[in-house]
Amino acid sequence: MFPQWSGAAWINRQVTELVQAYGGAFRRVSDFMLTAILLPVERIMQKIPPWLFLAFVAVLSWHATRKPLATVLYVSGLFAIGLFGLWDKLIQTFSLVLVSTAISVVVGIPIGVIAARLRFLRRLLIPVLDVMQTLPSFVYLIPVLMLFGLGKVPALFATVIYAVPPLIRLTILGLRQVDPNVTEAAQAFGVTRWQMLTKVTLPLARPSIMAGINQTTMMALGMVVVASMIGARGLGEDVLAGIQTLDVGRGLQAGLAIVILAIVMDRITQAYGRPRRHVHAGNDTRNLDA
């Protein structure tokens, strides 16, 4: 009862023509991203002694949460990954997540700021973001694999595309929820647009923006594991190898390491996203979680 029609052949022709016409440019972009960003970050992270990395996580966790038990648990969890013999793979995964999250922040927050101000851009972005968030993560691997080949760079691009939508959404939401009375009062004092953005609206929207960064980080971590199918190294590689060889112990160990890393990153970014208020008592000032 259905007419026979498929767009697969047309799509394949378009992709083939695109690769033939611009394949050299894509390769140059891939080489630049690999040699100028990904590999230097990974080498720097690998040169950091494990004890120094754990100490940095402890300081960051204490500064974010002010909870000694949580700090000890986070550091102990990362130490356990080293006991599993997966420290180098942890650093590879963390480096890719760090770079992809940084690119997502650089791309997502400015787009969110502009879209919060321009109504027509929001209307254009919403359906695009809906499609980006509903597509299965495996779908993103197909075009980047065709354009950039195997390796870390296609994994990076696929991760950024998959992880940036929640940051854009929550940036728009946070800026649009800023109290108009506050902005009107700031305008009455004669602030410029740049001062309004940097001194008023962005600080007030910080909890929402940090929630977006948290979601982006978690989605990037999940996508990095999937991207191990196209050559991304790290913990996902061990999970994939465990599935392919039915090595349950290896896959479970790497899976637990991913869970530990996700919990640590999630809790720290969440803690920085909570709004805080200052309570003054005489000359004493302290930060309390709102």
Q: What does this protein structure show overall?
A:
- With 290 residues, the chain is mainly α.
- It has one domain (18-275): MetI-like (MetI-like fold).
- 80% of the residues lie in helices and 4% in strands.
- The chain contains 12 helices and 2 strands; from the N terminus they run ααααααααααααββ.
- The chain has helices at 8-47, 50-65, 68-83, 87-117, 119-134, 141-148, 152-176, 180-188, 193-204, 206-226, 235-245, 248-273; strands at 276-281, 284-289.
- It has a two-stranded antiparallel ribbon with strand order 1-2.
- α2 packs antiparallel against α3 and α6 crosses α7.
- The radius of gyration is 22 Å and the shape is globular.
- The termini are far apart.
- The model is unreliable at 278-290 (pLDDT under 50).
Mean pLDDT: 83
The largest beta-sheet arranges its strands as 1-2
What percentage of amino acids are in beta strands?
Answer: under 5%
Structural class: mainly alpha
State the CATH topology: MetI-like fold
Low-confidence stretches: 278-290
SSE arrangement, N to C: HHHHHHHHHHHHEE
Number of domains in the coordinates? 1
CATH superfamily: MetI-like
Helix segment tally: 12
Q: CATH class, anyone?
A: Mainly Alpha
Q: What gross morphology would you assign?
A: globular
CATH architecture: Orthogonal Bundle
How many angstroms does the end-to-end distance come to? 61 Å
Walk me through the topology.
Layout (H helix, E strand, L loop, with lengths): L7 H40 L2 H16 L2 H16 L3 H31 L1 H16 L6 H8 L3 H25 L3 H9 L4 H12 L1 H21 L8 H11 L2 H26 L2 E6 L2 E6 L1
Antiparallel strand pairs: 1-2
Helix pairs in contact: 1-4, 1-6, 2-3, 2-12, 3-12, 4-5, 4-7, 4-10, 5-7, 6-7, 7-10, 10-12, 11-12
